[in-house]
Design goal:
By secondary structure, the protein is α/β, with parallel strands linked by helices. The protein folds into three domains: 4-112, no CATH class; 116-310 and 362-383, 3-Layer(aba) Sandwich (Rossmann fold), CATH 3.40.50; 312-351, no CATH class. 45% of the residues lie in helices and 16% in strands. The protein has helices at 4-19, 46-58, 87-94, 104-112, 133-144, 156-170, 185-199, 222-253, 277-297, 316-319, 325-331, 341-349, 360-372, and strands at residues 24-27, 37-39, 65-66, 69-74, 77-84, 102-103, 124-128, 148-153, 175-179, 204-207, 259-264, 302-309, 380-383. The strands form three sheets. It has a seven-stranded parallel β-sheet with strand order 9-8-7-10-11-12-13, sandwiched between helices. A four-stranded mixed β-sheet has the order 1-5-4-2, sandwiched between helices. Helix 8 links the parallel strand 10 and strand 11 (259-264). It starts with a helix and ends in an 8-residue tail after the last strand. Bound molecules: nicotinamide-adenine-dinucleotide. Nicotinamide-adenine-dinucleotide (NAD) is lined by residues 128-129, 131-135, 153-155, 158, 180-183, 208-211, 231, 264, 266, 309, 311-312, 315-318.
Amino acid sequence: MNKELIIAPLIRGFLIEKTGCPWVVQRCERGAGEKTIVVDTQAEDREKAIEVFSASLEACRNDGEIPLRWPVLWAGEEYCFCAAEDFEGIEKIKRNEQKDCRDAAGIRAAAGKRNRNDVVRGRTALVTGGAQGFGEEIVRGLCAAGALVFIADLNLKGAEALASGLNGEYGKTVAFPVEVNVSDEESVERMVNFVAGTAGGLDLCISNAGVLRASAILEQDMASFKFVTDVNYLAFAMVSKHCGRLMSVQHKSAPSWHTDIVQINSKSGLEGSNKNGSYAGSKFGGIGLVQSFALELVEYNIKVNAICPGNFCDGPLWSDPEKGLFVQYLNAGKVPGAKTVADVKAFYEAKVPMGRGCTGPDLIRALMYIVEQVYETGQALPVTGGQVMLH
Ligand SMILES: NC(=O)c1ccc[n+]([C@@H]2O[C@H](COP(=O)([O-])OP(=O)(O)OC[C@H]3O[C@@H](n4cnc5c(N)ncnc54)[C@H](O)[C@@H]3O)[C@@H](O)[C@H]2O)c1
């Protein structure tokens, strides 16, 4: 049992509950004079350990001041964590530039003045497949709205480039890259442990990484069918499992705080897709998981919802000049009479009542609704310009 993965989210949850706003909690060197939290158990059972550490934290619940550092003595081992509202605050504490404790009532009063523009401000968010396409749009939208974002991708170089660009643009740390293969459970667990070690907990998990291998079922080789199922369906379960475990620990000390797991599904999760069964099947299955996990995780105030976008015509999947679906469909003669990529694009746009493809801002509006709305879970929200309607 890694005790840090229990201590950090429980301290973070404790601070969230006390102040009504999100925090960053990270391991640090011990300072002088802080009150040590003594954990009196040898228990190696995770549930029991969570129980005992929460009870030890309860002992400080009436403190009006929030200490900079949180030393913990647990079964003879020493740990120390620091807590701040963002990564800059953490760095200041580590450099001994922040001397004063924080006033819980003042922070709570400021949190009470937050409005709709602050829905994700300061929240920690994880976006799988965040290096490009819809994932990149979500990462950019979340950073613009003040969230701290983990960009998790198989393409580490892409995630690093995006994170360093965003950190430069905002002049502070707003994004971290993290390598993951979402269809490998050990890799998913490492990713979530990295989030816990860096931010102390998680508020918003966006399971976005997805793949498509369009093929007629009479022709499709089952290895490609299984590949799509592993990345789109099974991976969502693994990401939900490990993010959900972290969120559920945090919930123990932040019982009033809502967190979110959001699957980026597809209009093909609501309606069959011709010669694309592996994709549509994996997405339909995703909605079954969303509904089931929503029922299961509601006890931890974790909402689980899906967003079902229409075609992102301007994104790389469709518009890449060499490998994009528009150029592929042009070369394959899939759209009768089409002579250029623009003709193929116009054909697909004409299928949408609102006459255009889905964009990043369309998706972000749906995401903000899901996070702000604390009275809904287990839903699949279409963002298709009217192309697919619920019945
Ligand atoms: N593009 C669309 O028109 C469209 C429409 C509806 C839904 N979607 C869904 O949106 C999501 C994103 O699609 P996109 O078009 O932006 O895709 P994309 O191909 O442009 O980007 C996908 C990203 O996921 C990463 N990725 C792929 N496999 C991974 C794995 N095993 N582990 C970690 N990262 C991995 C890739 O490196 C890439 O950065 C998918 O779930 C897709 O099904 C896309």
